[in-house]
Amino acid sequence: MSDASNRGPRHEPPQKPLSDAEESLHTTHNAMSLAEQKRGRVKPATWIVLILLALVAMIVPYWFGRDLAMNRTDSLVAVLQLFDPRGLAIISWLSVVITFAALGGAVAGWKRRLMGVVAFVTFAIEQFLGGFSLLKGDFWYSTYVVFHDDSIYANAVNLGILSATVGLMVFAILFVAVLVLIKRNSPLNILTRGASALSLFLITELIALIVVLFGGLIAI
Question: What's this model's pTM, rounded to 2 decimal places?
Answer without folding.
Answer: 0.76
